Amino acid sequence: MTITTSVGPFPAAATRTVRRGDVELAVYECGNPAGIPVLLIHGWPDTHLLWSRVAALLAGRHRVIAFDNRGAGTSSVPTDVASYRIEELAADVRAVIDAVAPGERVHVLGHDWGSVVGWELVAAPDAASVIASFTSVSGPNLDFLGVYLRGSVTPARLRGSLAQAIASAYTVAFQIPGLPNPVLRVLSKHWPRFLGVFDGLDPALVETAPTLRTDMINNLKLYRANIRTHLRHPRPRPIEVPVQLIVATGDRAVRPVVNAEAGRWVSNLTRAEIPARHWSPISHPAELARHTAAFVDRIDTAR
Q: 94: which residues sit within 8 A by CB, 6+ positions away?
């Protein structure tokens, strides 16, 4: 199979559509069709386009698979909040893997909410039969974070909790239906410029989907469906899939403390740091691709 591209490594139209129940997921593929499969999961308010630069760097040796999460891009947009639980999004990922790489073990790279979903994905009892490795970028395991916040009170824990509380203050507004919508409608018109200020990256590098405004508002349901539930009633589970944490040391939204519990629950944990802020797939694609490819090669060689 030869995969053609238009602008960037991904084709302009989805290479296939995967249906799970009432939800249709637009899948985009590029790279070496005979290569090791690497699946990329985006977060809020992005689409598969977030990964354009990373995918271009991985595509020479890997089969790169990305898709628009439910509620984003050209995938289906459920209307109820419960449809955005991370359990549902993780099941979407499994459906994509079953359709696109049946019988294969896939390496997963997730950013922001894509990483949150990835953590849920690898916590499944049978995850190791489908997922070869997981690389997490700027997205916490909400259950680990919930346990951390309930731990014994120490000065270090208080400092870490306060730092993340400040970084996550915006999510309080996201919990209230309708409240952030007017701001997001305006922000969507100036998103590249906003990322230039917030993340210090070149606005010219920001590739936005035509659905950005509606994606921003639709996917606020991610925050409402998951944060309070998992932080109030965490259910951490042991993870046997090899995990790589790529920590963006300058991330203003996700502080390094969110990974404090990972060593307790992940049996095979690797950690790397990059001098980036939150949107590292745009600002530091070479570092992400390098760390991901090296991890994939190490895990694949050890099999």
A: 121, 130
Q: Which amino acid is at 78?
A: P
Taking the CA atoms of 278, 273, 39 and 33 in sequence, report the sign of the dihedral they define. Answer: positive
Strands 62-67 and 36-41: parallel
- Indicate the Cα dihedral angle 147, 43, 278, 229, nearest 10°: -20
User: What spatial distance separates the first Cα and last Cα of the chain, rounded to whole Å?
Assistant: 26
- Picking from 5-19, 58-72, 137-151, 222-236, which range would have the lowest pLDDT averaged per residue? 5-19
**CA distance linking residue 178 with residue 261, whole number of Å:** 34
Whether residue 152 has pLDDT greater than 80: no
Q: Render pLDDT for 92-107 as a digit per residue (tens, 0 to 9).
A: 999 999 999 999 999 9
pLDDT computed for residue 153 by the predictor: 67
What is the C-alpha to C-alpha distance for residues 64 and 294, in angstroms, rounded to an integer?
15
- SS3 category, 28: strand
| Backbone angle region of 21, left / alpha / beta, with phi > 0 → left and psi within -120 to 50 → alpha | left
pTM, two decimal places: 0.94
SS3 7: coil
Question: What is the rounded distance in angstroms from the CA atom of residue 205 to the CA atom of residue 53?
Answer: 9
Model pLDDT for residues 175-218, shown as the tens digit of each residue: 878 889 999 999 999 999 999 999 999 999 999 999 999 999 99
Euclidean distance between CA atoms 224 and 172, whole angstroms: 10
